[in-house]
Specification:
There is one protein chain. This protein is α/β, with parallel strands linked by helices. 35% of the residues lie in helices and 19% in strands. The chain contains ten helices and 15 strands. The strands form four sheets. Strands 3-2-1-4-5-9-13 form a seven-stranded parallel beta sheet, sandwiched between helices. The chain has a three-stranded antiparallel beta sheet with strand order 7-6-8, with no helix packed on it. Strands 10-12-14 form a three-stranded mixed beta sheet. It is globular, with a radius of gyration of 20 Å. The two termini are 37 Å apart.
Amino acid sequence: MKLLVTGGAGFIGGEIVDAALARGWEVRVLDSFRADVHGAAPASDDRIELLSGDVRDADAVARAVAGVDVVCHQAAKVGLGVDFSDAPDYVASNDLGTAVVLAALARADISRLVFASSMVVYGEGAYAGRNGLTRPAPRRESDLRAGRFDPLDDDGSALSPELISEDAPLDPRNVYAVTKLTQEYLSTAWARVTGGRVAALRYHNVYGPGMPQNTPYAGVASLFRSAIERGEAPRVFEDGAQRRDFVHVRDVAGANIAAIDWTADAAPGTSRPFNVGSGDVHTIGEVAALLSANAGGPEPVVTGEYRLGDVRHITASSERLKTELGWQPTMTFEAGMKEFATAPLRASVR
């Protein structure tokens, strides 16, 4: 089988490439090597057909999809960004890029697609209140300024965070989230029109060796790890009690391989989302503390700072992925963070 991985020179894409090679598949990579992700060109590997090109370039994508059996679309601009001036780049990189890829698949009569979506499509996570499950409104800046970080029920009572399933209502609350949901809608439209089969993998907080460092677009684990490497204390926003699901990059690669296999037998026209999380809930403060302890770094500093686009708690139920695709995470939180605390990161980017 021949697999195309867009963004295959990146953090997650590179792990997917390694996992595919271990399966004995032929692998082609299309990557733009953009400077805000890659500090240096990747090492050459004779087992990989490496193409340099942007997913927004129809000619480059047409060359990349020629002769492949399935596409794993990882190329994207990730993270919350710096400010709203990032919006055009997010929309172009994620949504226009995905539209170009889908059009190329339709022309080449390729019917199998796995792509990277995100937990951010849900907005705030699932909560239980006095009257059962509920979805709180966006947090008010006045509450955040006052240090009231947890969402409240309509009557002002406390809510209990729950695991969120793929059937939960979608509520993207920042530009990046909107672009990820748009990618899902675009791929669903493509599947309906062409009879294609799509797995949309809603990644939760992915971490592991090879994360990009020193960039505002990286995940929080990378920002903490980069600070420790510089000899600085990790700066933890809010009160550090934000709940997240941290999933190791090798487990994410395994989920992609399982999803690729699933597309071979799924019914034509199927587009199905799957949460990709460890199922093990931890706080942002715990991550910072564990990384510092394992790396011999300074104690984290809880700053009380906040970002309006952030959500308080978002944790995954990955039962659908486990039940339907036979996937299981293999890396525990403690072992993964111990490894990550001293693992190499990607070279600094501008």
